[in-house]
Design goal:
Blueprint: E1 11-15, E2 20-24, E3 73-76, E4 97-99, E5 109-111, E6 116-122, H1 136-154, E7 161-168, E8 180-186, H2 191-207, H3 211-222, E9 226-229, E10 233-236, E11 247-251, H4 263-284, E12 290-295, E13 310-314, E14 317-320, E15 323-324, H5 329-333, E16 337-338, H6 342-351
Parallel strand pairs: 2-16
Antiparallel strand pairs: 1-2, 3-6, 4-5, 6-8, 7-8, 7-12, 9-10, 10-11, 11-13, 12-13, 14-15
This protein binds 5,6-dihydrouridine-5'-monophosphate and zinc ion.
């Protein structure tokens, strides 16, 4: 019997944050590709685009018009998925809706109203920038806006969870290349944070320690999956990563939410985000698509000492600027699977320069 070699043999890995397993097939990266090839996105955007609905001074959907903002700009999403004016369980107008069992069935179908609100955050007035290309001081301001939004929305009685995120690139469904992110805030805890909430609470109850603090300690000792770090944050390709270049950004300081970051930690967050996204762009010399977002404690007014503030990056690209990872057949029907190992993805990201590939290009203004 051969000895198990995780760099060669198919195996599964456990994700302690979600309690799910993922399949790793390291031997599979050599297979030929004759499927879909994505066209690399053109990246010669002007500083200001008169047709962009996020640029300063421009018209949005309906009658809305953006102010001539010069730093960041937050507005209510004109096509919000969640609406504030929705009854919720603790309100007087709430009537639960159950479809009771009938005939021999003992199944009840349940639905409940979900109040919430959605906002769009423009990171910069400059249409041609991304987080990777913004000045550190401007990124620091974006961190401040995220904190403000978390606090402001979290304080509302019908908001118990605030999800801050960014969809970047057409491949991830972003509707516009202007640097922007979103916030969706709602009454109940959505699936992903709910799962992480349970896992972190269980670990805390059992060991009296933060799950992610312990994970971080292990990764710092192993040194195999580290990508980039500073005094306040560490980025790893997690042991259980699903997406090829998925990363997990962990705060060294165990705090439940970003409002508790000290000033120098907020600078540290801006720094690590710039360095990580620059490395991403340098992998294929393109503006690297991804979905990213912060996970932090619910805003239900209860203490959540077990919550450990962190961020996930989920980029779809696999082997080149044009070949993406699809989450289809087996992934949809059975469970997630990846080809390149998290260790080799981390190594690739570690090799990348922290000087953005566009710096020094003559067309760059
Ligand atoms: P995404 O690129 O991640 O889709 O975010 C852009 C959001 O901007 C999207 O949710 C909103 C869309 O509803 N939007 C407006 O609120 N007003 C507009 O005029 C266009 C788009
Ligand atoms: Zn724009």
């Amino acid at each position: 019997m051969q000895q198990f070699n995780p760099a060669q043999h198919p195996h599964r890995r456990f994700n302690p944050l979600t309690g799910e397993w993922i399949l790793v097939s390291p031997h599979r990266t050599q297979r030929p590709w004759q499927g879909q090839v994505e066209i690399p996105p053109q990246d010669n955007r002007p500083r200001y685009d008169p047709t962009c609905y996020l640029c300063p001074g421009n018209k949005r959907a309906g009658d809305a018009e953006n102010p001539p903002y010069s730093q960041t700009f937050v507005f209510e999403n004109d096509f919000a998925a969640l609406l504030p004016d929705t009854p919720f369980p603790a309100s007087s107008s709430f009537i639960p809706h159950h479809l009771p069992p009938s005939g021999g069935s003992s199944l009840t179908l349940t639905s409940q109203p979900e109040p919430g609100t959605c906002r769009v955050i423009c990171f910069s007035p400059r249409h041609d920038l991304t987080l990777a290309e913004m000045e550190l001081s401007d990124l620091r301001r974006v961190v401040e806006v995220w904190v403000e939004q978390y606090l402001e929305l979290g304080a509302l009685p019908w908001i118990n969870y605030v999800q801050i995120f960014e969809n970047k690139g057409a491949m991830m469904g972003s509707s516009n290349p202007h640097p922007h992110g979103q916030v969706w805030a709602n009454y109940t805890l959505p699936n992903e944070p709910a799962q992480e909430d349970r896992s972190q609470a269980d670990y805390w109850a059992k060991h009296g320690r933060s799950l992610l603090a312990d994970y971080l300690e292990l990764e710092l000792a192993a040194q195999e999956r580290l990508v980039v770090q500073n005094e306040h944050f560490v980025v790893v390709v997690p042991f259980w990563a699903i997406w090829p270049f998925e990363t997990l950004l962990i705060s060294r300081h165990h705090i439940p939410s970003m409002d508790q970051l000290a000033d120098e930690e907020r600078v540290g967050l801006a720094d690590i985000l710039k360095r990580l996204t620059t490395r991403y762009d340098n992998i294929f010399n393109i503006s690297f698509p991804y979905s990213m977002g912060f996970h932090q404690q619910p805003t239900d007014g209860q203490p959540h000492p077990y919550w450990h503030f962190h961020s996930h990056f989920y980029p779809p690209l696999l082997r080149s600027a044009t070949v993406r990872k699809f989450m289809v057949g087996y992934e949809l029907l059975a469970g997630p699977q990846r080809d390149i190992t998290p260790e080799s993805a981390a190594e690739r990201l570690r090799e990348m320069s922290e000087v953005h590939y566009k710096v020094g290009l003559s067309s760059d203004s």
